[in-house]
Structures are given as structure tokens and as C-alpha cells.
Amino acid sequence: MQQGLRDAHPYPRKTAAMGVLKIYDLHPEAVRETELLQTLRSMLLSDQNAATVFNCVVTLMEIDGPKSLATKQIVYGLINRLKDFTEWAQVTILEIVALYPPADKTETFDVMNALEDRLQHSNSAVVLATVKCFLRATLELPDVHQQVFERMKAPLLTLAQTESQEPAYAVWAHLHLLTLRAPPLFANDFKSFFCRIGDPPAVKRLKIEALVAVADVGNTYEIVTELSEYVSDVEPRIAREAVRGIARVALEGDGDSAGPIVDRLLQFVHHGAGYVVAETLNAVVSLTRKHGTVFANACVAAISNIEMDDIDEPGGRVALAYLLGEFGEVIPEAPYVLEPALSAFEEEPDKRVRLELLTAAAKLFFKRPPEMRAMLRTALQAGCLDADQDVHDRAAVYVRLLARDPDAAARVVGGLEQKNKVHNFSDARERDKYAPQIFDEFNTLSVLYREPAFVFCDERNAGGRVVPRAPSALDLRGGDGDGGGAGMPGDSLIDFGGDDAVSGGGAGGALGGDDANLLDLYDVPSMATSGATSVHDERTGRLEGLGGVSGVDAARAERRGSAPAVLTLAPAPSMDPGTFQEKWSVLGVTPGCASSVTGSMSLGVGPGVASLTAAQPLVTHLATRAFVTVASGGAPPAIKIFAHAADAGSGCVFLLEVVVDTASGTASVTVKSDADAARAGQLEAVVAAALRGFGT
Fold first, then answer.
1. pLDDT tens readout for residues 466-498
2. What is the pLDDT of residue 494?
3. Based on the structure, what is the number of domains in the chain?
4. Which of 71, 422, 445, 587 is placed for a possible disulfide with 289 were both Cys, Cβ 3.0 to 4.6 Å?
5. Does 440 have pLDDT greater than 80?
6. How many CB atoms lie within 10 A of CB 62?
């Protein structure tokens, strides 16, 4: 091998350089105990053949890591002959240059001047690698850093106009990241982000998000006008994104500047496409929550003629139910819009809608009691008998509040007290929380996936194995669903939200001890016999005739007698990663999949979690409990595992996403299943026992 590295002809030399890597893969000690690595390092600066030098670079990067090459002597030597390499070799060398920290401002300018012409290269990979070098070199020089943004705008915008879709998407993804990093610098170039007819949907979505990011006082009108055109796009995803974009612009402005935007947005309430109406209603919910009553009159007028049956998507029905409950006192037809939905409560397949219908009926009861008394009774009765534990618990809370303290119910549920405005929404926080980490991983797959590397790479980082991309895990900034998540408002202490399971003990303590156990509704006293004497006459009158929730006692034996057997997991379930990903995307997402169950929980983890440095020990532990891992990754403090299990009796499958926080000793677990709610609920105890048993 040494003879090959010293051969007079370049072909044996470059072949021998790669041969060193093969030997290292088989016998690392054999390479390190010889002078092969020293020979390769000397060839980096002395060999005249560019292909040989590049093979030496690749071999040393694989053995010692790229940082080992980020020395002044090596970096300057490679930069001086950069043009001799192929364009893909240049990309690799520029990655090394990006790791080199210049000693002072003068050296920074020397490096950038030497690489200046690479910004004009026809290969987008070379340009992006050069941009990364510029950004990394100027991080400690804020004034120069801003100038770098200005300098690289034109090359990137030019490259983004390529007809090749894949390179165009890569460039637009990086441009979008830069707009989040420095929006004012792109504000004057907002027209460059307008969508073209031939743009693929993925590029259009990036452009829409970039337009929202660069919106300011000077360009808001033109941006909103452009986004309004996209609402009529034939691609539903683009139409949804356009509505969300207009809403975000309105949410980020103040009451005065947002007025015209809201007027434009409300025009889509009566749009012909159901998905546009659903997204618009969710936007209206967000606007009323942030700006309070500023736009209430306009929003109420816009939705006053909408019927619940006119909305196909669950997210839209959730939003409409919320608005009817929140503003029902000024919407004359509100009770009668809710009435058909409440009458068909048991037939509603989506849990989120049933939860919000309960809350809307309770709110509206305190505002318009004569019209809502019978409807509320019907809703509570149906909710108490609901098979879903969340729906059952919420109905139970409302029953007990009304029975024990109607005044408190009016304050907490009825919304009769002024609520605090919402200034920051969780989706915005989720959307931007990884932006600094992704910026540090510029010109990598992290920018395209919009997630840091630890989310989709395994703990060994061997070959960059990618974890199957589950929508709920990786699409944190809003996917292509019906947009229902944004419209599920947390409007009170009682309104627990759509997917969070409620502990019976915790809620019971809040309501007054053991008598208020939410898990047993069968001893609920009649609301007519509750201590309503402490209530104002007006409020007492509202409660008269509401009566108890009839039918509960009659169903007691049936419900308890039909309880499923104890859950037993199959010892060795089989499922390939592709099937796992397909099922994960279907369960709980596909309309009409009423049998699916999805939920999240936070659990404690056993004492061994603090010593975790990789996912494998926990994977092995879960395997002993019949949970089979299909993918794992991450590093402390966040370790992620995707696993599955199966019910030995029914064959129902359970899909799990487990995110372990090694610092706090807790785990966030998301479960999706095609089992019934009762059996899926039993899995929580099994998962909790498995995690708490780790390391004991």
C-alpha cells in the first residue's frame, strides 16, 4: 500500500488512497500502527493530481473526521487549488473550509475573497456550500454577517429559477431558512417569492411561507393580495397554505393594520371548497383569541349563515362549534345551528368535534338558557355514555360542576368572565423552535426535512440511516390535514383540549375529593337536587328543568359487564418499516377512520434513563416487554423510538412514538391504534410499566 501511494503514476496513487480506507474498515489498528495516515496527510499538500488529493481528503475524513482537516495549512492549500477539483469534490472541500475558524477579521476576508467566484458557479451545491462557508466565517462579526446576506441573495435567487425541480426545491428551502433568519433583508425582494404556474406544490409551499416571513408594513397589501390568488389553486394543499399564510400575517400585525387583512380573509368563509372554509374558520378562531373583540363583529357577521352540516371536515366543525359557543349571544341562530349536531352526537365520528360540541353547548347554555336547556341535557347524556374516555370525562366534569357549583360552572365553562388574549400560539413555537439548529446544519438534509439531524438519523450516524418519517413526528409545522389542530382552543380550565387524557384523581381533587371521581359517573347526583340555593336567582332559573342525566344508571351494568379482558401483547409481532409508516399516516388521520385511536401521554421513566447515551439499551428493554422497535435515533437529552405491538387476542396493532428526556427522566408517548378506545386505553398502563421498569 505504501508503494502504491508513492507510485509515479496518479492512478495507482488515488486507488491506493481509497485502499487505505478499505483496510481501515477491516483492521483499524493495522492502519494506525503504520505511517499510512501520515503519508496521506503529506499528499494533501504535495501531490499534483487533484483526483488523488481528493481521495486522500475522503479517506482522512472517514477515519479522523472532517474537523481533523480544518487546519490553516490544509485549508489554505485546498482553497488555492480549488478550481482543479471536480464540482462535487469542491463541495466536499468547502465543507472542510466551513469548519475552519478564521483567526481574525483579516483572515475572514481573505478566505471569502478567495471563494468569491464560487458564488457564480452553475452548480447549486457548490454555491450553497460557499454560502455556508461565508455564514460560518462571519458569525462572530454581526456587521459583516449582514453584508453576507446581501451578497448572496442575488446568486441564490438566480439559481432558484432553474427548470430542474429537485435543485430548485433545495435552493428554495435554503432561501426560506434565510428569510426566517433575516426577514428585513428580503423584504424588498418579496416579488421573487411569488409562485409561478409551473412550480411544483412543494416549492409553492416554501414560497408562501417565505412571503409570510418577509411581510412588513410596506409590502403587506401586495403579499396578501398575492396569497389571495393562491386560495383558488387547484391543489388543496396550496389553497390551505395560502389561507394559513394570510391568517399568520393578520395575527402578527396589530389591530389597526390587521383590519383590511381580516376583511380579505373573511371573504373565504363562503368559498365553494370545503377545505378552504375549514381553514378560514380556524383562522377566525385564532384571530378572535388574539385580538379579543376587535374583529368579533365582522367575524360573527361572516359566520352567521353557516350551518354545521355545510362543513365536511372535522377541523372546520370544531372551529364553528367554538365560535357558536363563544359568540352565541350575538348570533341569533346559534342554538339552532348546534341542535342537529347535538341530536346526532353519537353519530359524530371525530372525537375532537364531540369534545367541542360539549363545550359549546355548556357555554351557550349560560348565555341562552331557555333555548339550550334541553340540548345541553341531551349532549351531557350522550357524552357520559360515550366510549371515548376523553369525551366521557369532559361530560362528567360539566355534570359535576353544574351539580355542585353552578356559579363556578358559569365562570369557568360559560365564559362569562373576560379572558386573557393569546399572544403566542403553540404552532408558531413548534414551527420555529428548531430554526437555530437547522441553520447550524446549513447545506444538509436538515434544511430539506426542516428538522435537525438527530430527529431522522440513528444514534451511530453510520451511513446516515434515515428513520421512517412519521407525519406527526416530522411534520411539526402544519401538514396537509384538515387543519383542525389550530382550531381547538384551550379556552378554560375545564376545556382540556382534544387529545389529552385527563386523570380522574387530579380532576376529582379540584372538584372536591373522592365524591368527584371522574372515572365513575354512575353516582352523580341529579342537578335538580344539587345545592343551587347559593346561586343568584337568574342563574337558578337557568338551571331549572335541566334535570339529571337520565339513562346513565340504566347503562351502568351494560358498560361494566362489557369491559374487555386484560390486554395481553403478542410476544413477537412482525411489521416492516414501510408498513409502519403507512399505518402511522392513516390511523387517526384518514377521514372516516372512526375506529382509530390516537392520544398522547407523559410518563415517568425508570432510573436507568439518566445513563443513556444511545437508544439501544431502551430498545432492548422494550423488546422484552413485546414492543418491537422499527427505528430509533437521537442523542441525550432527547432519544426517540418508533415501535409497535399487537394485542394477542384481537390482533389489533399499536404504534408508538416514544421521546425520552434523559435530563428529566420522563417520556412523551404517542399511541395510534386500530383497537377500540377501551383496549387502546389499557395499553397506557402497559407502556407506563415498561418505561418505569427500565433500569430497575
1. 334 433 333 323 344 444 433 333 333 223 233
2. 28
3. 2
4. 422
5. yes
6. 14
Angle subtended at Cα 544 by Cα 538 and Cα 549, rounded to the nearest 5 degrees: 135
The maximal CA–CA distance of the chain, rounded, in angstroms, is 104
**In this structure, what C-alpha cell is assigned to residue 458?**
440513528
Q: What's the grid cell of residue 156?
A: 441564490
d(CA 416, CA 402) in angstroms, rounded, equals 15
C-alpha cell at 213: 416571513
- Where are the alpha helices (H) located in 450-576, listed in sequence order? 453-456, 471-474, 504-511, 537-543, 552-561
Cβ partners under 8 Å of residue 483, min gap 6 = 240, 244, 275, 278, 279, 282, 313, 315, 316
502 belongs to a structural domain: no
d(CA 11, CA 418): 79
Of 95, 124, 148, the one marking the end of a domain is 148
pLDDT of 361 reads 92
The domain that contains 99 carries what CATH number? 1.25.10.10
Q: Is the peptide bond before 637 cis (omega within 30 degrees of 0)?
A: yes
pLDDT for the residue 603: 65
pLDDT, mean of residues 439-444: 88
Residue finishing a domain among 88, 114, 148:
148
Instruction: List the alpha helices (DSSP H) in 267-350.
Output: 274-291, 296-303, 314-326, 334-343
The C-alpha cell 425520552 sits at: 660
What pLDDT, on a 0 to 100 scale, did the predictor assign at position 271?
A: 79
Please give the pLDDT value at position 504. Answer: 34
Q: Comparing 521 with 685, which gets the higher pLDDT?
A: 685
Residue with cell 410518563: 603
Phi and psi torsions of 140, nearest 5°: -90, 5
Residue 233 C-alpha cell reads as 389553486
Residue 571 counted as domain residue? no
Q: Dig out the grid coordinates for 521 from the structure.
A: 359517573
Q: Tens digits of per-residue pLDDT, 339-363?
A: 999 988 989 999 999 999 999 999 9
90 contacts 55 by C-beta, under 8 angstroms: no
Q: Cα 404 from chain centroid? A: 39
Confidence of residue 696 (pLDDT cuts 50, 70, 90): low
What tens digit of pLDDT does each residue of 622-661 get? 888 889 998 888 778 888 888 999 988 778 888 988 888 8
- Report percent pLDDT > 70 for the chain: 78
Residues 6+ apart with CB under 8 A from 559: 385
How high is the pLDDT of residue 547?
52
All three cell numbers of 604, joined, read: 415517568
Structural domain for 115, as ranges: 2-148
The model's pLDDT over 61-110, given as tens digits with 9 standing for 90+, comes to 999 989 999 999 999 999 999 999 999 999 999 999 999 999 888 999 99
Task: Quote the Cα angle for 348-511-406, to 5°.
Answer: 75
Contact 591, 314 (CB under 8 A): yes
Closest C-alpha among 694, 590, 597, 575 to residue 646: 575
Q: Round to whole Å and give the CA distance between 111 and 148.
A: 13
Question: Would you tell me how many other CB atoms lie within 10 Å of the CB of residue 565?
Answer: 10
Answer for the pair 400, 524: CB distance below 8 angstroms, yes or no. Answer: yes
C-alpha cell at 669: 408517548
Cell of 265: 380573509
Q: CATH number of the domain that 658 lies in?
A: 3.30.310.10
Confidence of residue 565 (pLDDT cuts 50, 70, 90): low
Strands (E) across 110-242 are located at: none
Answer yes or no: are the C-beta atoms of 50 and 89 closer than 8 Å.
yes
